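Workshop exercise sheet. Pairs work together: one partner reads the sequence aloud, the other fills in the structure field after running the prediction. Swap roles for the next sheet.
Pair: D.N. / O.F.
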Amino acid sequence: MMRPQQQTALRLAIGGILLGITAFSYAEEPSGARKQAPDILFGPLFNDVQTAKLFPDQKTFADAVPKNDPQTILADYHMQRKQSGFDLRHFVEVNFTLPTEKEKYVPPAGQSLRAHIDGLWPVLTRTTSSAGKWDSLLPLPKPYVVPGGRFREIYYWDSYFTMLGLAESGHWDKVASMVDNFAYELDSWGHIPNGNRSYYLSRSQPPFFAMMVELLATHDKEALKKYRPQMEKEYAYWMEGVDALQPGQASQRVVKLDDGAVLNRYWDDRDTPRPESWLDDINTAKKYPSRPATEIYRDLRSAAASGWDFSSRWMDDPQQLGTIRTTSIVPVDLNALMFKMEKLLAKASQEGGDSAAASRYEGLASDRQKAMERYLWNEKEGWYADYDLKTKQVRNQLTAAALFPLYVKAASQERADKTASAAEAQLLKAGGISTTTVNSGQQWDAPNGWAPLQWVATEGLQNYGQDKV
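Structure field:
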């Protein structure tokens, strides 16, 4: 069994891994209309720049800030590109401010792990309470912590684990500021986008906001009551359209199965190439002419919404990215998080004196738990897995997502024990839990292990007395 000192060390280690990975290895105005993504604003110019591969990273031009009205820039482009000697790169440099990375942070020599993490917080903290009218950046009212490197904006599900580190470092003011920012996004756009960029507005990410509020509530006992309205807005976003569904139908992020059980899936509202990976997506779709490109684009985008971009868990052929079909798969980890959201909404309602709402959310959580046990449990293999809407069967692949029901305490002891045994036998490696058992070359597959999944696995296993981790 882990001693408290060992648990603290493990948490610090995971925090250090997460910061190290995100910081170094990548590596709309509320009163007005929603900002448009740069591919919409600039149309053919955006496509031509990305296709020309002017920059080594396609996110560079997606993050570039136009110096003038997009219509004026487009008019100039249409006129100038027909002229002899037209230089596309020069045109971009004249009309856009390109993003620049900050000077690489070099920590002082000989630091302890804790000191290293504490030293990173101010380096990774940003304040952008305003942004240009045509800037893809979405301003936020409070300071926030970014991953670093080319990732100059906040990312949704990553931020929960960042906040765990902030709490461990005693920066509760920053935790509160980040919760405020996400609440602001829910109030402004009805959901928390993948990141605070206009091109991320069409999708969200794994819904950790309720757990962020739960974390803050350990320091501010009024937090659950205070942010209940925003928690309910996020729940409404994920459940939008459920009342109109007939058994066997799906709409956006919600699925009604043949017996009337309700679960959720990942979904992106757009079916075009991702601006930040424009040419990659186009090239992926071109390899599969028999399949509609728009279908491939939506499934690529929806995988980005899952946070697992990309992984064999979404593909028919692990070696062929174009066989991805995220939207026809009901993910076990997403539904575990939705169960947790329902439980926390029940708690927030009860604390606010609304017993009727508390009972309703408890009922929804109970219904979801039963649906998870029926559809997201692979009886033959003995682990939790995703459900396939096309084959109407639970999928066989074991992934680290199987540990999410343990993480949110939705599993029975018997099934938790079986899942733990399977994870130990097939996923546990010298460095931690492998993401999957499949080596496809994708970053969310074996042999890679991701820091958030180590946390989920550790907490989930300890919830059920599995202290061998």
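Discussion prompt: The first helix runs from residue 4 to 24. What would you look at next?
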